[in-house]
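worker-03 picked up job from queue 'complexes'. Input manifest follows; two sequence lines, order preserved.
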Amino acid sequence: MSITTAATLLERADRLTRQLSADAHEVSQIQWEQFDNTVYRTLHELIGAGRADAAYTYRSSNPLLQALRAYPAPLRLPPERTYSIDFAAQLMDLSRRQVRDRIRQRNLHAVKEGDQYVLTTHSLHADDRDIAPADPTEPHPIARLSVTLGAFADLVSENNRTPHPLDMDDHARTDTVRRVLALTAVTAQHTVRHTPMDAVDRPLLIARYASTHIDTLDPSPRRALALDHIAAITPDGAPMTINEQLDVALHAWSAAAHREVSRMVPSTEALSSIANQGVRLYAVTHHLIRSAPSVDVGPSDSGQVLRELRDGGASLRTAEMALVGLTSLTRPTHDFVAANRDLFTTLERVREMAASNDPGLDARAALAALARGIAVEAELLTTARGVPAGLLHCRLLFAPARTLEPSVERLEARRKGRFIPVELADAPDLGWRWEAAARKAPEVAVALGHLDLRLEEINRDHGIELGR
Amino acid sequence: MNHDTPTVNLLDDAAGLMHAAASLAESRGGDDAFSEWHGVASQIRLTAAGVSHSPSAVTEPPPSITGCLASSMTALERIAPLAGPPDLTLWIWHIHELRDLAEHMERR
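worker-03 finished. Artifact:
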């Protein structure tokens, strides 16, 4: 079992860059291009991906977007993206008018997106070059740096594409971009010194670009806390510590719960269990923040976070109870039943250990894991928000006739103890209770995302250096 | 599922006893939304849904959560090995795990 956070990877990239000064190996052109391409992909994921103005309009005065736009002729653009005419003009070293002419003459294929024309990566021929990612087993320090930075970009990319990405505001994003630009400038200058003379132009250009744009971005006192929460989990080997057990239990539950929610007719008991497990996650988090003396959650207003947890818990409990007594006649899977119980048991152990100040529990790491669990809960609730109401409208929710409002039509069923479809009038609050819980859960996840849970992971290696 | 009536009755009785256990856990939790006993109740209801969707109404259930769960297992163990659902043994194991969990929590 290993957890790799985006913060860990960025720290590692920083350390690898510092070690470059002690290295005298020549940098090959392939190694440089892999790094160059990875840096652009990283900046693209940090700045461009997931934005409403992802087509990089020139009218934007956002310094981060300007920094991304100024990247000197990216070697390869991320695939399956669209770009503005401004961006295409810069990339092709043409004027806007020339690009428009080419579109009119059908030399460039543009598609309409909203009220503007955009060009795809493919139409710009910007994905023609095949630059393979750096090999994780290659010992060269720049290859190791490219692998680390590439893994960082992958994590940010995955976060950008989830329904509820962990949010990085522009101050925190600026701090991260400055760090990436700093290590880019150092690596480019190192390459200039250790590459054949005929190949120095590009590293020199990138070194100048990175050095210039570090200064155009205001230094921010805000560290990107979201980087601690963006994480990849690799379940390998038996978990040894309670923190590892928590990570494994959360991972297994997340996978099983996602499968339950996406069933054609989900089990109502599984849905209400997901809501209940959310309450447990909130309760244990609440307990840890309040009681564990070793946990310093940083400058954020922990009182506000505690209130959010309480309110969120009440909202989830209401949603859970709205489903109790109703059934979709779908059995929960053994996989989910076991994973759900395992997480409950593990959360109880965490709570007990926190209550007794057991040194075997790393409370900060546990809080970081719980924050990830709470983000998963928000995702699940968002996915499931319309499911109970949908089941009700499709007459796929059932209950014993004796528990529902009596009527002449239901007399026979009541007498024989039968199950009958639940009508809208029998559960008028079901839909909005789940809507309310689904609206609240992401708010709680965001509040948790603001806690300072930076982990001491400097010495933890997470499988980046394969075979070493 | 096409099981004979005694088997179906035993499955319904077992689920009914589990719902009785869940009710006891709910009442222990009271009005506190953060009480772990509401979590126990949820775990029991989830497992009961795997046993039967039509739980019997139990008139005089055992007074403790572990007692209800133990009676539920006893009911299921009365089902002949090939008469019940193919995954019955696994459901019994889930209830066994729940009983251990409830026992641990009741001891605290």
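worker-03 released lock.
The CA atoms of residues 20 and 60 of chain B lie 9 Å apart.
Chain B is about 70% helix and 0% strand.
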